[in-house]
Amino acid sequence: MGMDTSKFAFHDIYGTDPDLLAMVPQPVAAVLLLFPITPSMEKLRETENAAAQPATSDSDILWFKQTIGNACGTIGLLHALANSSASDAIKPDSPLDTLFKKARSTQDADERADILVNSKELQTVHEATASQGQSQAPEDLDNVILHFVCFVKSKDGELVELDGSGGRKGPIKRGKKVGTQEDLLPVAVDYVKESYMALNPEEVNFNLIALGPSFD
Hints:
Elements: E1 8-13, H1 18-21, E2 30-36, H2 39-51, H3 72-82, H4 95-104, H5 109-117, H6 120-131, E3 146-153, E4 158-162, E5 172-177, H7 184-199, E6 207-213
Antiparallel strand pairs: 1-6, 2-3, 2-6, 3-4, 4-5
């Protein structure tokens, strides 16, 4: 894939309590959320999408529209690596480096989606994540049980949610300030608790993963 895993790795987040968050290596570069697509969640997404403006994307955010089935985990991985300090650990001319360079050559979401569809580099990344047991979910939200989204800190210090499917039109700024990179984890977790988890308090199928410094 081309990632220097001696510098960055994914870490399980064992809970939302401060003591458990303190176990996660800092600074966290990105946070991935796996959540259940419930009727209430679908309704919220539809409402947000209807109100959203077409993406005129921030130049510092690389957003991918997902048109490939069974790839939400891979899209989440790409969002995390492309929009964080982890991008500095991508080896030059590697599959990831080549893919991101192609994607950044256009601001058009459909063109970026086509780049992914036709990308041998993405196939390499997708097969690697699948072989490592990454969770996946279909693109068709009518049949989805679980889905991945990614949270990163923008250059202007805001919490940004990245989700390529479900009718999303681009990156979503969630109105939460992220002061330093070390603040990303608690700010993202607080947002997840007050929005995703509060919307479905009976659900237990939530999982959080942090991209941060490697233990190696």
